[in-house]
């Protein structure tokens, strides 16, 4: 009996996908109790060939791949959910690796906590080329979204949601409240997001409970190209654009801009603190983050 379906959407990152799968096949839960569905979202590289070669070496594991022709992370994840056979769904990305207890931790959580509609685990940022000196706890969040809420199972605090690359849900909850909004989520190299926030906002409005599972650990691999100034600037601008689209959908655009003004005040104070501690690079990138997010919130020809 398949208890949990693990879904991985992938696009043109065959090497990263195989590394993620190496951690997947090491799970401690018996292989007949879970499956892994890779959703190939129109990859133009050798994703299919490399997956088939990898799966052939691990026949004991329920590994399969499907193709989603509609471009976009939300489309791909939704396709994985449609293909799933498990009563629980877990989602990771193709640039991650997970610990051996990842799947069993979520199965145990949902079995032990019948009120749990969704869950999320710990996220640890990993920089193969070294952590850049300009990264602070504030600027790291859009890049890697590290999460550590302690060593005990607990409810996610108000205002916090699981990271998109380490979350789990009961399939019945998705069937009841809907999956990911295809109008949101990354498409190819477009970094617009917000699909996870939109989903968890719906679940929160319905009064469902979301638990933090410390033993479900994911390492988010951050390659050097994702720590360049150009990538960081574009990412932050798209975050602002995402927030604008979601606020417009809820008729809360004025409130969004008011909140951003408050965040500018906090950003200036934090930047001053970095300067006083002689870490000017952290101050510069914090200001850059806020500036690009604000630009994304304001509709321009680029956005």
TrEMBL record:
Glycosyltransferase 2-like domain boundaries: 5-177
Entry superkingdom: Bacteria
Gene3D superfamilies: Spore Coat Polysaccharide Biosynthesis Protein SpsA, Chain A
InterPro entries, alphabetized: Glyco_trans_2-like (IPR001173), Glycosyltransf_2 (IPR050834), Nucleotide-diphossugar_trans (IPR029044)
Protein name: Glycosyltransferase family 2 protein
Native species: Candidatus Alistipes avicola
